[in-house]
Amino acid sequence: MKYNIFIKYFIIFLILSFLVCGCFKKESKEEVSYNNAIKELNSYSKNNLDSYPFDILVNVEKISTDNLLYCLIIDNVKESINSMSAIIIHDKLTKDVFPSIGYFDEKINLLPSEGKKGLSLCGYINYSGTIDDFRGKFTAFIKYKDNKNYNRRFYYIKQY
Question: What burial class does residue 69 get, using C-beta atoms within 10 Å of its C-beta: 0-12 exposed, 13-18 middle, 19+ buried?
Fold first, then answer.
């Protein structure tokens, strides 16, 4: 009799263990890559180059009484960019995901010879002040393969 009760409790324990272990969500490769990029960007404090193989700009614009639009603009690409991924983060408290490309979707190619010379990544910040009073730090990370299949990495920081 005691043996049967032990088996029942053991089976219940096993079932509960499997349920608890199965409920933990494992991050996908994309989520891991995205989260690693954000961690790396949060620790970066300066641009890594004086010039880039493209024009780069972070623009902010007040679009409503409570929202600010920010965009990372990459334009006038001067060399072929293959398998590009990019992300831009800011130093404001947010629950939103940061604008990115190449992490949860396909990496892109910017090929000047084919007329593909730029892109923009845009996001929003809850902000009720004026654009002149806005203070914030935006950090962008761009990685890609060049014509020789070398990995290239760029950091860009814009302080307002």
Answer: middle
